[in-house]
């Protein structure tokens, strides 16, 4: 499909969040165009879990089934300590509450592939190599012109900014990006990292230590070693493993850790059976800072822009929340735009729709950031008295079903149904 000169809604960014927004808008019969600056969809180790609440929201777009079909439903995950199982997070406790009482193990790459296929089935096209370089208001109009690096442009009435951490939509609208708990700017040169982790997708030799689950997440907290089985996006390429290795703040971790990965795994492996790499698909260092857009809605000229996904929030991947939160933002943004387009109310009341989007998604985002900060503190507490406190907290969580259920309720995202 040739690139249009104008559109009703421009979605900037074709990560999982932009793609979810584009599908939702298309299904709502809104003329939507989605662009991405890169030449191909992203590869490499990123998100790998879809939680219950996200599946409920995807179900409204008929997307839950295609996603579940390609993933592995895990009804629990296990956190281990020095010798013992410390805590089993049991998603089957949610059986009475949701039709999806599990966390789905699936790579972000595969989700993006499914979303692109579903968008194309609807008749949509993802326009790659379209890097946005500026967004200019048009005098006496509710529209803006969006300019691309390749010299082309498009006129639009609404923008969904799903363009990731360094969002041009957010910066053009002048929305600040700060840690909602400390007030620190995202790009503060003095800011420290909340978490440093090496993430790798790889194939491992059999036999593996028997304590490693084949159909769920296994985390050894004392050694910080995380293992998760995933299916490949390339049919026939077989299942592979995601490994995560955590480092303390200030640790000197190589940017490209492939060469040292086997050594790192040997150091962290708490079991007598070796974990041996057969081949590495990708390995990278990931340093996490925390930030949230002060608001998720603004205007450029008279054009409404909504932020969604990493453009609106960034935090630790602990608990696997980022992509989940972003996909839920995206679908809420599409619904808000639909309601705005079809509202007969006078402008101030009509604009309340976007104010509500901003307020509600900000509340949920802040709540998720709080949860990931808490979980990150827990996983960083693997020495001395902090470790003792961590074990005591897990002891309580593991023994008392109401505490365990409250924890699962939060991690699954079902806690956010009420906003
Ligand atoms: C190592 C790692 C591990 C993670 N683990 C998890 C996890 O376990 N669970 C979880 O839920 N989340 C996890 N996350 C977070 C998750 O990957 C992100 O939340 C998710 O990718 C956000 O999706 P997005 O679509 O908002 O942004 P992105 O995926 O970053 O997509 C943004 C898109 O915008 C495009 N873009 C940017 N600027 C422009 C421009 N000017 N013009 C046009 N296009 C532009 C980019 O090319 C990109 O394709 C992890 C992230 C990382 C990096």
Automatic annotation (TrEMBL):
Domain named FAD-binding is located at 6-369
The family database entries (Pfam families) matched by this protein are listed as:
FAD_binding_3 (PF01494)
InterPro entries attached to this UniProt entry:
FAD-bd (IPR002938), FAD/NAD-bd_sf (IPR036188), RIFMO-like (IPR050641)
* Keywords in alphabetical order: FAD, Flavoprotein, Oxidoreductase
One term of GO molecular function: FAD binding
**UniProt KW Oxidoreductase keyword:** yes
Instruction: Give the cofactors, semicolon-separated.
Output: FAD
Entry-linked PANTHER family: BINDING MONOOXYGENASE, PUTATIVE (JCVI)-RELATED, TRK SYSTEM POTASSIUM UPTAKE PROTEIN
Q: What is this protein called?
A: FAD-binding domain-containing protein
Query: What organism is recorded for this protein?
Result: Clathrus columnatus
